[in-house]
Amino acid sequence: MIATKKIWRPNNVKEAWQIQQTLQPNEYCYVSGGTWLRTQWEAGLKKMPSNLISLELIQEMNEVRERLSYGKREISIGSQVTLANCIRHSLITKHLSPLVEACRQIAAPSIRNVATIGGNIYTTAGDTIPVFLVHNAKLRWFNGEEIETQLLEEWLIKLQANGFQRDQRILVDIVIEIEEPFNEQFTFFQKVGRRETFTASLITVAGRGRMNHQGEVQDVFLAASGGPIPLRLSNTEMELQNKVCSMQLFQEAFSLITNEYETASDPFASEGYKKTMVANLIVSELFEQWEGNKEGGGTNVVRS
Ligand SMILES: Cc1cc2nc3c(=O)[nH]c(=O)nc-3n(C[C@H](O)[C@H](O)[C@H](O)COP(=O)(O)OP(=O)(O)OC[C@H]3O[C@@H](n4cnc5c(N)ncnc54)[C@H](O)[C@@H]3O)c2cc1C
Question: Which PROSITE patterns match (predicted)?
């Protein structure tokens, strides 16, 4: 017997909330691009609920905008913005090139045309998350009454602590402060996938910071996925602050990262392999930046 499904298409976030309020938690789910949900339903990992609340028509969640908040310039990326649009949008290509790189490496173009940035983050497994973490991204949620703001990092940590129990809030947009590019700045994104094309990554790493011509590292932000949740490597960041690059510093950074990065073995890679891979990727990015600086280089983004 084919079970009847009801598909709701609210025009605004309040309407989406009201629909959800009339249903039990197991009777509905929000759908953005539906690409992740489909894999879960098809693999039998999740049951398709009887009500699907599509968020695709909510205009305010489909836009990339620049805005001012307390005198600071920010980019707001609506949760319904597709990965394909992130790759094309001029504000993102100008200020967030590692995000462009991360999106470009997700799945095939046909998936990227419908998969959204909000869905990518909400799964907690999305490849874009480390990029947002190193930019201290804030998530803005509609809670039924108002928009509330939460740091992405805080949301991930709380979610893990409560056993990944979600609430009903709707992710409206993701906000990042704009930093004007300058010479000593560096950014990077790297992804290591499995052998098959278009499968989920094993690990992704992202970083940004500054390195002057003497090789002194400042304001470095590092993050990696591949563990239970993607996380910042705050201790490593702190230990690198104001240190001058040398082969010894890179060796120390390697140990710091392998100690701090939390992961676990899975059917495709052991814990030790993933730790070594994350440390290697980050240290080689710092090394390349150091080498580039000696030759008078600047901002770079390296592909995997
Ligand atoms: C062949 C294939 C390859 C893939 N490869 C990759 C890859 O390499 N890297 C990668 O990161 N991902 C990959 N994915 C997974 C997926 O396509 C992406 O993560 C995508 O960005 C998810 O977005 P979506 O809009 O399709 O999310 P959906 O499937 O619509 O939703 C995902 C989850 O988020 C919830 N949700 C969505 N929007 C909101 C919102 N605004 N508020 C609250 N909850 C919300 C949904 O209820 C659901 O639980 C792949 C998928 C496929 C099918």
Answer: FAD_PCMH
